[in-house]
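Loading example: each entry is read as two labelled lines plus one structure line.
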Amino acid sequence: MAGSSVAGMIVGTVFIIIFASATVTLIENVNKAQEASAVELPSPELTLVSADWTWSITEGTMTYTITNSGTETVNIAHIYLSKDGNDPFSCSTLTWDSSPAIYIFPGETITATESGLDAGDDDIDDNPQTVFLAVFEYSLAVSVT
Amino acid sequence: MLMTGLIVAGLVSAVLLSTWDTISQGLEDQGELEIKDAKTRASLISDPSAISWDNTDDRAFIYVQNSGTISLNIADTYVFLDGNTMTVTAIDAPETWSKGVAIKFQIDATTDLTFTDGTECLLTVGVLSLSTSPTGTYSLTEVVRLDV
C-alpha cells in the first residue's frame, strides 16, 4: 500500500513536470512562430516612370526616371536595370541627378543618365526597346520612349 | 511491494521524460528552421522575358539577387531549367553573398538541350543560407522565355 502511494506520487510528480514543460515549450514555440512570421523581408516598390532614348550625333543616351512609390527607403545599389534582356547592371553605376545618390527615399524621384551608347554600331546597346527593373522580389518593365 | 512500485514508477518516469525531451527538441528545431527559412530569399533579376540561351554550349547566364536578410551560400545554389538539372558556376562572385548583392551564374546543361527561340519554360533557382544549424532553404520558380 505504501509502495503504491509512493509510486503514484512519483508518477504524478513526473506528469506535473511534463505538463509544466509542455506549457513552457508551447509558449516558446508560439513565440518562435510569431518571430518567423514577423521576419521583415525587403519589399521595395519602385516605379520606372520613364526610360528615354536620345541620340546626339555620335552617341545615344538613355535617361531613367525612377520614383520610390513604396514605403521603404531603397539602396540604389540594390536596383538593377537591364535593356532588352541583356546583362543587368546596378543603378549605382549610373550618374544620378543628385549626388551622392545612395538611397531613394519614399516619394522621391531621381533621374539617371547613361551616355555613350553607340547607335551607329549594331550592338546590344542600340536603340533598346525595353528596360527591365528588378529590386529584390519586385520587378517591372517599361517600353523605351 | 514498495521496491517494485518505485522501480516501475522510475522506469515509467524515465520513459516519459525522455519522450517529452525528444518532442520538445523537435519542436524547438522546427521553430528555428522556420525562422531561418523565412530569412532566406533570392530573386531572379534577369529579365525573364529574354533569357539568352546558347544551343551550342547548352548554356545560359542568369543573375540572382539575395533578397533575404541573411547571407547565402554561393556554392550550394542549384538551378533547374525546364526540368533539367543544370551545372551552376558563379561568375566573378564576391566572397560573401550578402543581402542585396546580385551574382551572375553560368548555368550549363548536363545533357544536350536544344530550344527554339521564344521557348517558354520553368526556371527554378534554389539557395541555401550560409549559416548552418539549421540551414535555411528557399527556391523560386519562374516562367522564362528563352532568347536563342
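The first helix of chain A runs from residue 2 to 37.
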